[in-house]
Amino acid sequence: MNKDDIRRRVKARKCLLSETEKENAAERAFAILERTAAFKLADRILMYHSLPDELPTRSFIAKWAAHKHFYLPRVNGVNLDILPYDEQNLALGSFHIEEPTGNDTASMADIEMVVVPAVAFDRNGNRVGRGKGYYDRLLGDTKALKVGIGFDFQLMDEEIGAEPHDVALDIVITENNHIIVRHKRR
Protein backbone atom coordinates (compact mmCIF):
# COMPACT_ATOMS: atom_id res chain seq x y z
CA MET A 1 0.00 0.00 0.00
CA ASN A 2 1.44 3.39 -0.92
CA LYS A 3 1.51 6.41 1.41
CA ASP A 4 -1.46 8.14 -0.22
CA ASP A 5 -3.58 4.98 0.20
CA ILE A 6 -2.52 4.77 3.84
CA ARG A 7 -3.44 8.43 4.38
CA ARG A 8 -6.92 7.87 2.86
CA ARG A 9 -7.53 4.69 4.87
CA VAL A 10 -6.48 6.24 8.19
CA LYS A 11 -8.40 9.47 7.53
CA ALA A 12 -11.59 7.48 6.90
CA ARG A 13 -11.10 5.55 10.15
CA LYS A 14 -10.44 8.74 12.15
CA CYS A 15 -13.77 10.18 10.97
CA LEU A 16 -15.56 7.41 12.84
CA LEU A 17 -14.11 8.35 16.25
CA SER A 18 -16.10 10.26 18.84
CA GLU A 19 -14.41 12.84 21.06
CA THR A 20 -14.77 10.43 23.99
CA GLU A 21 -13.03 7.66 22.06
CA LYS A 22 -10.19 10.04 21.15
CA GLU A 23 -9.75 11.16 24.76
CA ASN A 24 -9.85 7.58 26.09
CA ALA A 25 -7.28 6.44 23.54
CA ALA A 26 -5.03 9.39 24.41
CA GLU A 27 -5.30 8.65 28.12
CA ARG A 28 -4.24 5.03 27.57
CA ALA A 29 -1.44 5.80 25.09
CA PHE A 30 0.06 8.60 27.20
CA ALA A 31 -0.14 6.39 30.30
CA ILE A 32 2.13 3.94 28.48
CA LEU A 33 4.53 6.76 27.60
CA GLU A 34 4.57 7.97 31.22
CA ARG A 35 5.65 4.52 32.42
CA THR A 36 8.68 4.36 30.11
CA ALA A 37 12.13 4.95 31.55
CA ALA A 38 12.83 7.26 28.61
CA PHE A 39 10.01 9.62 29.59
CA LYS A 40 10.88 9.49 33.28
CA LEU A 41 14.48 10.45 32.49
CA ALA A 42 13.81 13.07 29.82
CA ASP A 43 13.54 16.67 30.93
CA ARG A 44 13.43 18.58 27.61
CA ILE A 45 10.67 17.17 25.43
CA LEU A 46 9.39 18.40 22.09
CA MET A 47 5.63 17.81 21.95
CA TYR A 48 3.03 18.97 19.46
CA HIS A 49 -0.43 20.45 19.74
CA SER A 50 -2.74 17.97 18.10
CA LEU A 51 -4.99 18.60 15.15
CA PRO A 52 -8.66 17.63 15.64
CA ASP A 53 -8.11 14.24 13.98
CA GLU A 54 -4.98 13.35 16.00
CA LEU A 55 -4.57 11.72 19.38
CA PRO A 56 -5.27 14.67 21.72
CA THR A 57 -2.14 16.06 23.41
CA ARG A 58 -3.31 19.10 25.37
CA SER A 59 -4.32 17.29 28.57
CA PHE A 60 -1.01 15.46 28.66
CA ILE A 61 0.95 18.68 28.18
CA ALA A 62 -1.07 20.42 30.90
CA LYS A 63 -0.54 17.50 33.28
CA TRP A 64 3.25 17.51 32.92
CA ALA A 65 4.07 21.16 32.10
CA ALA A 66 5.08 21.92 35.70
CA HIS A 67 7.43 18.90 35.82
CA LYS A 68 9.02 18.79 32.35
CA HIS A 69 10.39 21.41 30.00
CA PHE A 70 8.10 21.11 27.00
CA TYR A 71 8.74 22.67 23.63
CA LEU A 72 6.35 23.04 20.70
CA PRO A 73 7.05 23.47 16.99
CA ARG A 74 6.12 26.58 15.03
CA VAL A 75 5.92 26.50 11.25
CA ASN A 76 8.49 28.77 9.62
CA GLY A 77 8.20 28.40 5.85
CA VAL A 78 9.08 24.78 5.06
CA ASN A 79 10.75 24.20 8.44
CA LEU A 80 9.79 24.03 12.09
CA ASP A 81 11.17 26.33 14.77
CA ILE A 82 11.27 24.98 18.31
CA LEU A 83 10.11 27.21 21.16
CA PRO A 84 9.50 26.65 24.87
CA TYR A 85 5.91 25.85 25.78
CA ASP A 86 4.20 28.62 27.69
CA GLU A 87 0.43 28.42 27.92
CA GLN A 88 0.27 32.23 28.04
CA ASN A 89 2.24 32.69 24.81
CA LEU A 90 0.35 30.71 22.19
CA ALA A 91 -1.34 31.94 19.03
CA LEU A 92 -3.21 30.26 16.23
CA GLY A 93 -0.64 29.55 13.55
CA SER A 94 -0.27 27.49 10.42
CA PHE A 95 -2.87 24.80 9.85
CA HIS A 96 -4.97 26.39 12.68
CA ILE A 97 -2.73 24.86 15.37
CA GLU A 98 -1.81 26.77 18.51
CA GLU A 99 1.89 27.58 18.22
CA PRO A 100 4.31 29.33 20.57
CA THR A 101 4.96 33.01 20.00
CA GLY A 102 8.13 34.99 20.54
CA ASN A 103 11.73 34.69 19.43
CA ASP A 104 13.14 32.34 22.08
CA THR A 105 13.91 29.47 19.70
CA ALA A 106 15.67 26.39 20.97
CA SER A 107 18.10 24.05 19.28
CA MET A 108 17.24 20.43 18.56
CA ALA A 109 20.58 19.62 20.21
CA ASP A 110 18.95 20.57 23.53
CA ILE A 111 15.96 18.25 23.09
CA GLU A 112 16.10 14.80 24.71
CA MET A 113 12.82 13.34 23.43
CA VAL A 114 10.55 14.18 20.52
CA VAL A 115 6.93 13.01 20.53
CA VAL A 116 6.16 12.81 16.83
CA PRO A 117 2.72 12.94 15.20
CA ALA A 118 1.99 10.84 12.15
CA VAL A 119 -0.77 9.48 10.01
CA ALA A 120 0.56 5.92 10.37
CA PHE A 121 3.43 3.90 11.82
CA ASP A 122 4.84 0.43 11.31
CA ARG A 123 6.66 -1.88 13.73
CA ASN A 124 10.03 -0.86 12.25
CA GLY A 125 9.61 2.77 13.25
CA ASN A 126 8.71 4.00 9.78
CA ARG A 127 6.01 6.63 9.63
CA VAL A 128 3.71 8.31 7.17
CA GLY A 129 3.23 11.98 7.85
CA ARG A 130 0.91 14.43 6.19
CA GLY A 131 3.29 14.69 3.24
CA LYS A 132 5.00 18.04 3.84
CA GLY A 133 8.22 16.64 5.35
CA TYR A 134 8.36 19.03 8.34
CA TYR A 135 9.35 16.36 10.86
CA ASP A 136 11.78 14.57 8.55
CA ARG A 137 13.67 17.84 8.07
CA LEU A 138 13.55 18.58 11.80
CA LEU A 139 14.64 15.12 12.94
CA GLY A 140 17.32 14.48 10.34
CA ASP A 141 20.31 15.18 12.59
CA THR A 142 18.93 14.95 16.11
CA LYS A 143 20.16 12.50 18.72
CA ALA A 144 16.87 12.89 20.65
CA LEU A 145 14.75 9.80 21.22
CA LYS A 146 11.92 9.82 18.67
CA VAL A 147 8.56 8.52 19.91
CA GLY A 148 5.56 8.11 17.64
CA ILE A 149 2.20 8.08 19.37
CA GLY A 150 -1.23 7.40 17.92
CA PHE A 151 -4.36 5.29 17.77
CA ASP A 152 -4.15 1.49 17.47
CA PHE A 153 -5.45 1.57 13.88
CA GLN A 154 -2.57 3.87 12.89
CA LEU A 155 -0.15 0.99 13.50
CA MET A 156 0.10 -0.80 10.15
CA ASP A 157 0.62 -4.55 9.94
CA GLU A 158 2.52 -4.19 6.69
CA GLU A 159 5.84 -2.39 6.46
CA ILE A 160 5.70 1.21 5.31
CA GLY A 161 8.17 1.85 2.52
CA ALA A 162 10.80 4.31 3.72
CA GLU A 163 12.39 6.81 1.38
CA PRO A 164 15.99 8.04 1.85
CA HIS A 165 14.85 11.29 3.55
CA ASP A 166 12.46 9.53 5.98
CA VAL A 167 13.56 9.49 9.63
CA ALA A 168 12.63 6.37 11.59
CA LEU A 169 11.24 6.41 15.12
CA ASP A 170 12.82 4.71 18.13
CA ILE A 171 9.54 3.89 19.89
CA VAL A 172 5.95 3.53 18.69
CA ILE A 173 3.11 3.78 21.23
CA THR A 174 -0.62 3.33 20.71
CA GLU A 175 -3.33 2.77 23.29
CA ASN A 176 -2.50 -0.97 23.40
CA ASN A 177 1.06 -1.17 22.01
CA HIS A 178 4.56 -0.22 23.11
CA ILE A 179 7.12 -1.09 20.45
CA ILE A 180 10.82 -0.48 20.91
CA VAL A 181 12.40 -0.39 17.47
CA ARG A 182 15.73 -2.09 16.93
CA HIS A 183 17.40 -0.13 14.14
CA LYS A 184 19.85 -1.84 11.84
CA ARG A 185 23.31 -0.34 11.88
CA ARG A 186 24.25 1.40 8.68
- Please state the structural category: alpha/beta
Low-confidence stretches: none
The proportion of residues forming helix, as a percent range, comes to 25-40%
Number of strand elements? 11
Number of helical runs? 5
- Strand order, main sheet: write it out: 3-2-1-6-9-10-11
Estimated share of beta-strand residues:
15-25%
Specify the overall morphology: globular
List the helices and strands and how they pair.
Blueprint (H helix, E strand, L loop, with lengths): L2 H12 L4 H17 L1 H5 L2 E3 L11 H7 L4 E8 L2 E6 L5 E3 L5 E3 L12 E4 L3 E2 L5 E2 L5 H6 L5 E5 L21 E4 L2 E4 L6
Description:
The chain is an alpha/beta fold and 186 residues long. 25% of the residues lie in helices and 24% in strands. The strands form three sheets. It has a seven-stranded mixed beta sheet with strand order 3-2-1-6-9-10-11. Strands 4-5 form a two-stranded antiparallel ribbon. Strands 7-8 form a two-stranded antiparallel sheet. Strand 4 and strand 5 form a beta hairpin. The longest helix has 17 residues, at 19-35. The two termini are 26 Å apart. The model has no long low-confidence stretch (mean pLDDT 90).
